[in-house]
Amino acid sequence: DAGVIQSPRHEVTEMGQEVTLRCKPISGHNSLFWYRQTMMRGLELLIYFNNNVPIDDSGMPEDRFSAKMPNASFSTLKIQPSEPRDSAVYFCASKSRENQPQHFGDGTRLSIL
Amino acid sequence: GEDVEQSLFLSVREGDSSVINCTYTDSSSTYLYWYKQEPGAGLQLLTYIFSNMDMKQDQRLTVLLNKKDKHLSLRIADTQTGDSAIYFCASWGGGGNKLTFGTGTQLKVEL
After folding, report:
1. Dihedral sign for Cα atoms in the order A98, A102, A108, B1
2. Which of A60, B70, B85, B110 gives the lowest tally of CB atoms within 10 Å of its CB?
3. Chain A residues touching residue B28 (CB < 8 angstroms)
4. B65, B32 contact by CB (below 8 A)
5. What is the DSSP string of chain A?
6. Shortest Cα distance from B33 to chain A (angstroms)?
């Protein structure tokens, strides 16, 4: 049973470049979450989707961040232009129903130079 | 909003029991979760408890819930070096889909 799949696992790029992180949720899950984890701020919820529709994006730090979910099996988180302070581990998680737990991917470790 | 707090560090000897504590503020929290994060990995769901339960046991793991004091604990029996990780407590309040996570407790198991 495949878990949440994220790609790439690691990304190193120069500031100003566009970065796209990808996520494939568990099949049958209808909620998807994007988190960011840093030493200073811990785990932060950026945005989540229900049935491919963005429900709450209040955690998205700036307009440089955008997220899409074009279908039930794929989501992207884009940063354009990227800045060094965006360096973090970005996690995607999915869940099946409201009272069910979230299942996390292994994350994308992003370094902006 | 909901606040979930944990101590930052815990160190135990191999073979001893570990107890990781968590407090939360939202009395309407319906489910409480424990996740484990090993270095370089995502958060792995360990166990969870529904708010109408006091205790849940799963092999070496025991979860205790004191709803009156809004206190949750995770006990790991016979702690092994492979248990070294960061443990996150999280609560779900029954509305919407958001989980509120604690800061995580780093468990270090010494030989």
Report:
1. positive
2. B110
3. none
4. yes
5. ----EEE-SEEEE-TTS-EEEEEEPPTT--EEEEEEEETTTEEEEEEEEETTEEEE-TT--STTEEEEEEETTEEEEEESS--GGG-EEEEEEEESSTTSPPEE---EEEEE-
6. 8
* Average pLDDT, rounded, for chain B: 91
Max Cα-Cα span within chain A: 40
- pLDDT category of residue B27 using cuts at 50, 70 and 90: confident
- Percent of chain A at pLDDT > 70 equals 99
The pLDDT tens digits of the residues spanning B46-65 come to: 999 998 889 999 999 999 99
Asked if pLDDT for residue B26 goes beyond 90, the answer is no
What the block records as the tokens of B5 is 């707090």
Question: A55: which chain B residues are within 8 Å (Cβ-Cβ)?
Answer: 96-97
Q: Assess whether pLDDT exceeds 80 at residue B95.
A: no
Contact assignment for A104 to B97 by CB distance below 8 Å = no
